[in-house]
Design goal:
Elements lengths: L7 E4 L3 H13 L6 E4 L2 H9 L12 E4 L8 H9 L9 E5 L4 H9 L4 E4 L4 H18 L9
Parallel strand pairs: 1-2, 1-3, 3-4, 4-5
Helix pairs in contact: 1-5, 2-3
Length: about 150
């Protein structure tokens, strides 16, 4: 059953990047709630609905950094795509790495998109504007189970 939830899950360990991304969302007037998790293990616990996230509602979109403590973004993505009830959840990798090995591995593991964090705030705002238009407005979501 598809969720009517409009939450975005941001998995990012850099506090400054979290603040910039949230500011960019505000500047573009995206009202979707953002849940922020700071490491890969937390992301898996959240997505699995284990303590302390029992009863969580699945996000409509995951923004996933690759360079995370405890479990990398690649490990989170690999785990996610192995879960029958979660494998259709849209995942946009949002990371500083532009290395082809990271890009190829992310797509091999099932990333829906791969974006390199821009250097300037204005470029980030434009990226978020485009992300909003495509992923939050135009894109048709597959059904994802909340169980």
């Amino acid at each position: 059953m598809a969720s009517d939830n409009y939450t975005i899950l941001l998995v990012e360990d850099d506090h400054n990047d979290v603040l910039l991304i949230k500011r960019a969302f505000q500047k573009v007037n995206i009202a979707n709630p953002i849940v922020v998790l700071n490491d890969g293990e937390q992301a898996i616990t959240y997505l699995a609905g284990r303590e302390p996230y029992v009863g969580r509602v699945l996000p409509m979109l995951v923004l996933l950094d690759l360079k995370l403590p405890r479990k990398s973004g690649h490990e989170v993505l690999e785990w996610l795509r192995q879960q029958p009830t979660l494998k259709r959840l849209p995942v946009v990798v949002l990371t500083a790495s532009s290395e082809s090995s990271d890009i190829n591995r992310a797509y091999d593991l099932g990333a829906n998109s791969y974006l390199v964090k821009p250097v300037t705030f204005d470029a980030l705002v434009e990226m978020v504007r485009t992300l909003n238009l495509y992923w939050l407005i135009l894109n048709k979501r597959a059904e994802v189970s909340n169980e």
